[in-house]
Structures are given as structure tokens and as C-alpha cells.
């Protein structure tokens, strides 16, 4: 787990996550593959819980009468509003399915002014973004200096066009999308293993009733998400 110094992540949370990391390396981490090829692998037991705690802790940076504004990229149904207590929640999506969701593409959204949001986040979106390098630039542009950038996407997962499935990311690759600009610094990055062994069966394109057998044409037992949380300089 990569942590920066600062107020966003408590000492207790750091200790708990590092304990989980040690347990991983004492078990799976002892296998030759991990020792040889992944000595710097950072694991997170439940990224959503960590993100919730970081968002809660971030509220301490604002005054009592100040409400920070959070943008949920890909929040077509406002499904992550429950994570954002204390924030003014705004959702953005290409195809909104709820009221008051902004229509827009994070790859290019000139309708949003520079430095508009205190937090920009997305959950399981960047694998569907056509030009993630442009999306990262736009997300940084609309984030206020000192603001939080929070993204969780996929490293290993079945094919799932929604509407198109483009990419998979390593932790280092996701971090590079943002930090290459020189305007971001990493607070936390790693792999979310919460659904690692879930039976995530795929489907044939165009036929939602067709469920292939496990591990055949899209069925997965290795479901790894990757997480990046940074702060704009």
C-alpha cells in the first residue's frame, strides 16, 4: 500500500491495511510468482470502505458552513451518492438514467469550468473510457487545487461492454495516467481484492440471456480492481 503523509488517512487505518498486506505476503505472497514478479504488489482488502473513510476525513479540511462539491463520473443512476454524506453530490454520465445527472463525456467536457470540484471520483468507469489519457487531463482540470482524485477500475475482469469495454489497468498504469502531468501526487494506490474470488460469469455480446460456463468465453474467478487516490498540487 502506498500512503503519503497527510491528514487524509488515519494512523489506525494505515496499520490495519499494512497488517492485511503482511497476511497476504505470508500466504499467497510466499508463492514463487509473487516473490519473483510482484515484490511491490500493494493490496487493499476493501477499497470502498477505505474511500468512504478518506472522504469522511477530508471533510475536516472545510469549515462548518462550507459544503465541498463532489463529482461522480459515470454515476448515471446516482448509485454512489450514499458514500458522499457531507458533500454536495453531482453525477456526470454520457447516458443518464436518473434526474439531475449532468450529460457529458469525461474525455471532453468544456461545459464544466476549471477548478469546479473538491473531489472527482469514478467507480468501474475508466475501463469503458475511449481515451483515458484525455479523461485524466479533464478530471485534473476540473478538480480544485488540493482536491481529491479517486478512481477505482479493473485489472482483471470479464468482458462487459457498457457500451464498450476498452481497457484494463495495473496499479502503476492507473497512477501514471494522472501523475504523468506533474499536477498530482499519490495518496494511495493498490489492488482491491474484495471480489477476487466471486463467480463473475460473462455473456455473449448481444444476448443477455446467454450465460457461458464458468471460465469459458468470459467467466472469471480472478476479479481484481485497481485503485488510485491522489491530490492535486
Q: What is the count of structural domains?
A: 1
How much helix is in the residues? 10-25%
List the total number of helices: 5
Bulk shape:
globular
In CATH terms, the superfamily is: Vaccinia Virus protein VP39
Order of helices and strands: HHEHEEEEHEHEE
Q: Report the major sheet.
A: 8 strands, mixed
Strand content: 15-25%
- Which strand order spans the largest sheet, edge to edge or round the barrel? 1-7-8-6-5-2-3-4
Q: How many strand units?
A: 8
- Give the C-alpha Rg: 18 Å
Question: What is this entry, summarized?
Answer:
It contains five helices and eight strands. By secondary structure, the protein is an alpha/beta fold. The chain is globular and about 50 Å long.
Provide the fold topology.
Blueprint: H1 11-26, H2 32-37, E1 43-44, H3 47-58, E2 69-73, E3 88-93, E4 102-103, E5 117-123, H4 132-142, E6 143-156, H5 171-179, E7 184-192, E8 224-232
Parallel strand pairs: 1-7, 2-3, 2-5, 3-4, 5-6
Antiparallel strand pairs: 6-8, 7-8
Description of the structure:
- The protein is of the alpha/beta class.
- The chain has one domain: Vaccinia Virus protein VP39 (Rossmann fold).
- Helix content is 23%, strand content 23%.
- The protein is built from five helices and eight strands.
- It has helices at 11-26, 32-37, 47-58, 132-142, 171-179, and strands at 43-44, 69-73, 88-93, 102-103, 117-123, 143-156, 184-192, 224-232.
- An eight-stranded mixed β-sheet has the order 1-7-8-6-5-2-3-4, with helices on both faces.
- α4 links the parallel β5 and β6 (143-156).
- The longest helix is centred in the N-terminal third of the chain and has 16 residues, at 11-26.
- The chain starts with 10 loop residues before the first helix and ends with a strand.
- Mean pLDDT is 84; it is low at 1-8.
Amino acid at each position: 500500500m502506498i500512503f503519503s503523509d497527510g491528514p487524509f488517512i488515519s494512523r489506525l487505518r494505515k496499520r490495519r491495511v499494512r497488517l492485511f498486506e503482511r497476511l497476504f505476503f505470508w500466504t499467497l505472497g510466499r508463492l514463487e510468482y509473487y516473490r519473483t514478479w510482484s515484490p511491490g504488489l500493494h493490496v487493499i482488502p476493501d477499497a470502498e470502505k477505505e474511500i468512504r473513510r478518506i472522504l469522511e476525513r477530508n471533510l475536516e479540511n472545510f469549515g462548518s458552513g462550507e459544503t465541498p462539491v463532489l463529482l461522480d463520473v459515470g454515476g448515471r443512476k446516482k448509485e454512489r451518492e450514499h458514500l458522499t454524506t457531507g458533500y454536495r453530490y453531482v453525477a456526470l454520465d454520457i447516458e443518464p438514467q436518473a434526474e439531475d445527472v449532468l450529460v457529458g463525456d469525461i474525455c471532453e467536457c468544456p461545459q464544466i469550468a476549471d477548478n469546479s470540484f473538491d473531489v472527482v471520483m469514478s467507480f468501474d468507469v475508466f475501463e469503458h473510457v475511449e481515451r483515458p489519457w484525455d479523461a485524466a487531463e479533464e478530471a485534473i482540470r476540473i478538480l480544485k487545487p488540493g482536491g481529491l482524485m479517486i478512481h477505482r477500475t479493473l485489472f482483471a475482469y470479464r468482458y462487459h461492454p457498457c457500451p464498450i469495454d476498452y481497457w484494463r489497468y495495473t496499479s502503476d498504469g492507473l497512477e501514471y495516467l494522472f501523475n504523468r502531468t506533474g499536477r498530482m501526487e499519490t495518496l494511495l494506490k493498490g489492488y482491491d481484492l474484495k471480489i477476487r474470488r466471486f463467480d463473475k460469469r460473462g455473456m455473449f455480446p448481444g444476448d443477455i440471456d446467454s450465460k457461458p460456463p464458468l471460465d469459458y468465453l468470459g467467466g472469471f474467478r480472478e476479479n481484481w480492481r485497481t485503485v488510485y487516490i491522489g491530490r492535486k498540487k
